[in-house]
Amino acid sequence: MNRQQITEMVKALGPEVARELVDAASRSAPGRMGRGRATHEGSVYASVANFGAFTKSVIAVGRRTGTGELLEAAKHFGNADTQKAVQLSKFDSAGVLVPIQQSGELIEFLRPEAALLKLGVRTQPFKGELHMGRQTGTSVFKWVGEGETVPRSAPKYGKLVLKAHKGMVLTDISNDLLRTPGVGDAGVGEDIRATVADGLDEAGFNGDGTGAAPKGLFAQLDPTQVFASTGTTAAAYLADIDKAVELPLTAHVRMGTAAWVIHPTRATALMQLKDTGIFIFRQEMLDKGTIRGFPFVMTTRVPVNRIVYSSDWRQFIYGIDEDLILSEHDTRAEHDETTIRAIVKGDFKLRQPKAFSSITYSPEG
């Protein structure tokens, strides 16, 4: 089937079916990652050890001046792929740009550490600025009698704009690890990955849009989808959990990648909750990893007094510029450590805010 035939088929379908086809195509298209997409074996992002070796290499290389010294330093760190990546990297005053072999490598590298990525958000690599459409209203269905005219109706569409907000994260690495080839590569890679992922999670959940910061989830929630808890008794918790699940459904949001995100302390409170001596959520949470049948992710980036549910986390757009820049930021001689700087750019948008609901608890609740 050629492109023209596909276009004609989509036109002939109803808007709901057509939109599902478009969504499916978007998720499988280059640059829009599904879960667990592997990176190339020789890639810098193929493993934390590869990434750690690359980081140690570029820091060592950055301390040299002549071409011969650069090449010689690169030979001491990592395997042949890492050495080649170092030699082909672009060094400038901002640092070194981490090379990628295919779109989505940085996202997949961060996924094990990033709560938002674990939730199944829709990832969107972009450069500078990206305009995306979103549906803001649906077609109208009406019954008509014999001879009556059919009223015109069409879905209404708006626009989302992703803009690159620059963030800088710093992590301290032992000089013993940095100057010793082959030792602690995975540890170096894990430290930087965790720091970058945590910084993006903090912005993705709590960014307030002031200054250079992007707006995160809590700044974009629909006020009608946020409600105060009715209490901390078993009955109150159950009623609030049910309401959080119900709100997106009554707002006519289709069920997709549904899940909860919750602070570990609040998760503990749920697991300890009893009714007439019987645990309410404990067995489900421990045995199945779900709350009311939907999976949950724990992170300290969600305030302890909030529980967030979404009927489809794909309505959260996780935009990221895949140009990750590494550089040496500072030397902490008294601790024999080097502070490494990583610069990332990204933005976050809710494509359909009513897909999300949030329970707010009192500080003492």
Structural notes for this entry:
- With 365 residues, the chain is an alpha+beta fold.
- It contains 13 helices and 16 strands.
- Strands 1, 2, 3, 6, 14 and 15 form a six-stranded mixed β-sheet that branches. It has a six-stranded mixed β-sheet with strand order 7-16-13-8-12-11.
- A hairpin with a 2-residue loop joins β11 (290-291) and β12 (294-298).
- The protein is globular.
- Mean pLDDT is 80; it is low at 10-36.
- InterPro entries: Phage_capsid (IPR024455), Phage_capsid-like_C (IPR054612).
Radius of gyration: 24 Å
Any idea what the CATH architecture of the domain at 115-137 and 157-360 is? 2-Layer Sandwich
> By CATH's scheme, which homologous superfamily of the domain at 115-137 and 157-360 applies?
Major capsid protein gp5
Under CATH, the topology of the domain at 115-137 and 157-360 can be stated as: Major capsid protein gp5 fold
Element order: H for helix, E for strand: HHHHHEEHHEEEEHHHEHEHEEHEEEEEE
Mean pLDDT: 80
What is the overall silhouette? Answer: globular
Low-confidence stretches at least 5 residues in length (pLDDT < 50)?
10-36
Using the coordinates above, name the CATH class of the domain at 115-137 and 157-360.
Alpha Beta
As a percent range, the share of helical residues equals 25-40%
Sheet with the most strands, sense and barrel status: 6 strands, mixed
The multimeric state of the shown protein is single chain
Task: Count the DSSP helices.
Answer: 13
Based on secondary structure, the structural category is: alpha+beta
Beta strand %: 25-35%
Main location: virion
Domain Phage capsid-like C-terminal: 95-358
Subcellular location: Virion
Protein name: Phage capsid protein
